[in-house]
Specification:
Strand content: under 5%
Distance between the termini: 56 Å
Largest sheet: 2 strands, antiparallel
Number of helices: 11
Strand order of the largest sheet: 1-4
Order of helices and strands: HHHHEEEHHHHEHHH
Structural class: mainly alpha
Helix content: over 70%
């Protein structure tokens, strides 16, 4: 029974990591950049929920998604768009700068002390001797629906196919009449919306938020994206679920639970030594 509960909790946590990892992998696949400020969008979403929670939980969730999308689009327009064609190092430093900027703005507005954000007490589902929180079930179900929907969107919609074209060859996509800037903007908007939902599900698990709320989940989700193969949407999903299950099982063993983070990052190192492109990643030939 304990195994089943741990496994379900792992899948639920992995679903959240997968949502965040999708933001990383989509931006990398299309814009060829690593947006290390992505984890802090989770924090922005969490604080937005806190601000609007007095109105209504549903209103706060919708406001969180919309505001995070606007923040993501603004960051792309102001910080990243002028750096198109710049060295990867310049983009990386800018992303780290944006990350610290968001954290410091949150600290100035809300302070550094943790704040409690109780969205709803959803209770527990009991099946015989097994007790699973409804928040865990909802998180897992929503994660699956979101991942399936995103996959269908990318494969079968005009915008999704344009995203695939831009990820393959920006120049050729532009010649075919695709607005590359618009596609990159949409990608940031989708990634930021997923980060907002991830913030919601993290708060359902542990209703506490501070300015560094999204830092560690962001790094772990990036690890999941690399494990699955950075740039691969199915890879980000598999990597997220795998990382979540590993984390929950490691935390369930008291002898190794203090070293959970070290175990996760060690798995990443070992995998990259064996398969540098990740589980579903593909080798790309660079044009000269």
């Amino acid at each position: 029974m304990d195994f089943l509960i741990t496994f379900v909790n792992g899948l639920s946590l992995g679903g959240i990591y997968a949502m965040i990892a999708l933001g990383y992998t989509m931006v990398y696949g299309i814009a060829k950049m690593l947006n290390f400020a992505h984890g802090d969008i989770i924090m922005v979403g969490g604080y937005t929920i806190l601000v609007f929670l007095s109105f209504n939980p549903i209103v706060s969730i919708i406001a969180s998604v919309i505001f995070c999308m606007l923040v993501g689009i603004t960051i792309e327009k102001i910080a990243y768009k002028p750096l198109r064609g710049a060295s990867p190092l310049a983009v990386l430093i800018t992303a780290i700068g944006i990350s610290y900027l968001l954290q410091n703005i949150a600290q100035m507005i809300f302070g550094s002390a943790p704040k409690f954000v109780v969205i709803a007490d959803l209770g527990t589902l009991k099946l015989g001797e097994v007790a699973i929180g409804y928040s865990t079930i909802i998180t897992l179900a929503c994660s699956v629906v979101i991942m399936i929907t995103l996959n269908l969107f990318v494969k079968f919609t005009r915008t999704g196919r344009a995203m695939i074209a831009v990820s393959e060859d920006k120049g050729a996509a532009q010649l075919m009449g695709i607005n590359v800037n618009s596609i990159i903007m949409i990608t940031f908007a989708i990634g930021s919306a997923l980060a907002a939902l991830a913030g919601l599900f993290f708060l359902l698990k542990a209703p506490t938020i501070n300015p560094t709320f999204g830092s560690l989940p962001g790094i772990k989700a990036f690890t999941a994206a690399v494990i699955g193969g950075i740039g691969s949407i199915p890879g980000a999903m598999i990597g997220g679920l795998l990382l979540g299950v590993i984390e929950c099982f490691a935390q369930s063993v008291s002898e190794i639970s203090p070293y959970t983070d070290a175990i996760e990052f060690s798995i990443l190192i070992i995998l990259l030594l064996v398969k540098p492109t990740g589980l579903l990643g593909k080798k790309r030939r660079e044009k000269v």
